[in-house]
Amino acid sequence: MISCRRKLEEEAQRDERDGLVNGLMSYKQAHYFYKLTMDLLMLTLFLGFVSGILILIPRLRKSDTGKGAQQKFASQASKAYTKADVSSHNKRTDCWIIIKDKVYDVTSYVEEHPGGDAILVHAGDDSTEGFFGPQHATRVFDMIEDFYIGNLVK
C-alpha cells in the first residue's frame, strides 16, 4: 500500500514538473480549453435570448393589434353603410371593400398591397371571395380589422 501511494505521489510530482493537469494537458492548454468552453456557453445563452425575443415580439405586436382592432371595432360597430354608399368608393385614392358584410376603408393600403392593383378589382364592391383566396397569408385576417369602418346594411 505504501509503494502504491509513493508511486502516485511520484506521478503527481512528475506531472507538476511537466506542467500537466492529471497527465492529460498543460495548464495553459487547460486554461485555454476552459475559456473557450465558457465563451461558447455565453454565446449560446446570448443567441437563445435573442431568438426568444425575436419570437416573442411579433406575438406581442399581434396581440396588441388585435386589442386595438377590437376596440376600434366596438367603437365603430354602430356605423352602417348600404351597397350604394360603398360602391362610390371605387378608386385608388378612395377604396372601400366589403368582406362578409363588413365594410373596410383600405385606401391607405392600396399602394402597399403585395398583389398590386388586384385589390382594386373589387373596389367599392364585395371582395369576400378574393380575400379568402389561397394567395393571402393568415396575417391578413388580423390586418384587415385595422381598416374596419362599419357594417353593410342589406
From TrEMBL:
Q: Which InterPro entries match?
A: Cyt_B5-like_heme/steroid-bd, Cyt_B5-like_heme/steroid_sf, Cyt_B5_heme-BS, Cytochrome_b5
Provide this UniProt record's keywords sorted from A to Z: Heme, Iron, Membrane, Metal-binding, Transmembrane, Transmembrane helix
| One Pfam short name | Cyt-b5
- Looking at the record, the residues that make up the Cytochrome b5 heme-binding domain are 78-153
Task: Mention any one GO cellular component term assigned to this protein in its UniProt record.
Answer: membrane
Q: Name one GO molecular function term.
A: heme binding
Which ranges does the record mark as transmembrane? 32-57
The entry sums up its family as follows: Belongs to the cytochrome b5 family.
Q: What is the name attached to this protein's record?
A: Cytochrome b5 heme-binding domain-containing protein
This chain's source organism reads Salvia splendens
